[in-house]
Amino acid sequence: MAEVKKMATRDAYGQALAELGEEHENLVVFEADLAAATKTGVFRKKFPERHFECGIAEGNMMAVAAGASTMGLVPFASSFAMFAAGRAFEQVRNSIGYPHMNVKIGATHGGISVGEDGASHQCCEDFALMRSIPGMVVLCPSDAVEARAAVRAAYEYVGPVYLRFGRLAIPVFHDEGMSFEIGKGETLAEGDDVAIIATGLMVYEALQAAEQLKAGGINARVINMCTIKPLDTELVLKAARECGKIVTAEEHSIIGGLGEAVCAAVAESGIPCKVKRVGVNDEFGHSGPAVPLLKQFGLSAENIAKVAAEL
Amino acid sequence: MTKAEKTDLAIKATKIRMAIVEGTHAAKCGHPGGSLGAADMFAYLYFKELNIDPADPKKPDRDRFVLSKGHTAPGLYGALALRGFFPVEDIKTLRQIGSYLQGHPNMTLTPGVDMSTGSLGQGISAAAGMALAAKHTGNPCRVYTLLGDGEIEEGEVWEAMMFAANYKLDNFVAIVDKNGLQIDGPTAEVMDSGDIAGKMRAFGFEVAEIDGHDFDEMEAAFKKARETKGKPFGIVMRTVKGLGVSYMENSVDWHGKAPNDAEYETAMNELNAKLAKLEAM
């Protein structure tokens, strides 16, 4: 994995929109005054007539997108995760989720890795909020290649989809043309001593952790769980049966995210398996450069390896 | 509008009021007051204004109606049933388990309902999204939404108005039902919304202020709405909440409670008398 190219998943989101816009006339974008940051500006440059600025009014934007979707358009509504999932939660719940609208929510700047802007903008609650809405698909791609594939899959899926992208440039480790299916996890490394189930930027950290664990004689399975809902329960329970130990890793609160979804699946299965969650431990973030900040919050390969080794 | 047309609309409005009383009485709950007050507007929209077809409720170029004040669903259901979207007697299943007539409108269950609403402030946004999409796709339909004067306390309503004006949605009509009452009391006391028409004008709307029980004024306003180009249209209509049932008129108490058996009898007697009078005209 030498010389790994880095790219933020938000950049891949903008690219994917521009690509898909070429193929699909009915793809439109709604934006809440953050086009340069969410990267929907890339789409706007190519298709200005299909990019609708909503101003700083995320709640209105979500319900506008819902209405537009009833007219045969496929809207991608974008903002930062904090405002898309947080501020506009109730519009997403009632105007998009309840009528099962064909609206895609492209939420960038998820998690602690927002960095310097600090806790007000570091959304670590979006998985919890979006998972709780019946029928909502929740995706969190692990690199730029998967992000592009996820955007395409979200377009092709009929129904509401929440996509979380990141601000930070992270390693691109998937091969171009990877196959992607909503609801299917991806096993990136085989091993039977412990399974690391990760999502988003924690997937690459999980792969690094597996390398570190290998040096200590522990063979870790690494599963990339881009789809947080619906969870690939089959793959989770296979890991539970075959490894007996699971570490989850996500750039999200340990409350309500991937970790809790895995815990619920394992607990209800009756399979004896220990689970530990690596995530943000029920606290707010703060300002600082993203990479040291992630380390400080234990969102690192070293911490995953430590937790896995101790399990 | 001819006298016969007006009488016919008044008959429809009275039947809508009867459906509202039937539904809320059967459900033992619901929102009769605001539904009754808007019954004349429901009648006008569904029997005069909207381009719709009960035989083809999803026809792509139909006009859209979004009940932003979703709690007045009994009035909408009454209008839809009388217009032929579903049997009038089904009104009695309102709010019951298994019924397609939910407490607040659900577009996935009820024929003729264009948007699921109930959480105040969101319907107008969805309607604006429909109007924008109609313009974008070249759909000739028009989009109408009905809001309450309590509902406009939600900030989202004004976000949606800014949006509608910004995109020059002249295929969009936002009607505000100004009955002056909300759950906790008169709107002037709960949260004084002041000059609603003036505020809408300031937000970029062309506005007509009308009597919400006068079909001639409705006709003139909707005509003006169709003629207005380059900006969205607002109709602020003064109404009497609870109109048609004497003891519910202008009463805060009848926002969200159902008539008991005796009250139901009184209400239906009043409405039947009104209907007989209209039918004799």
Could you explain how this protein is built, in words?
The complex is a heterodimer of chains A (311) and B (281). By secondary structure, chain A is of the alpha/beta class. Chain A folds into 2 domains: 6-171, Thiamin diphosphate (ThDP)-binding fold, Pyr/PP domains (Rossmann fold, 3-Layer(aba) Sandwich), CATH 3.40.50.970; 186-310, Rossmann fold, CATH 3.40.50.920. Helices cover 41% and strands 21% of the residues of chain A. Chain A has 13 helices and 14 strands. Chain A has a 7-stranded mixed β-sheet, sandwiched between helices. In chain A, strands 9-11-10-13-14 form a 5-stranded mixed β-sheet, sandwiched between helices. A two-stranded antiparallel sheet of chain A has the order 1-8. In chain A, α8 links the parallel β6 and β7. The mean pLDDT of chain A is 97. Chain B is an alpha/beta fold. Chain B has one domain: 3-Layer(aba) Sandwich (Rossmann fold). Chain B contains 10 helices and 7 strands. Chain B has helices at residues 3-27, 32-37, 39-49, 73-83, 122-137, 155-166, 187-190, 196-202, 215-227, 261-279; strands at 64-67, 143-148, 172-178, 181-182, 185-186, 206-211, 233-238. In chain B, the strands form 2 sheets. Chain B has a 5-stranded parallel β-sheet with strand order 1-2-3-7-6, with helices on both faces. In chain B, strands 4-5 form a two-stranded antiparallel sheet. In chain B, β2 (143-148), α6 and β3 (172-178) form a beta-alpha-beta unit. In chain B, α1 (3-27) packs antiparallel against α10 (261-279), α3 packs parallel to α4 and α3 (39-49) crosses α9. The mean pLDDT of chain B is 98. At the A-B interface, α4 and α6 of A face α5 and α6 of B.
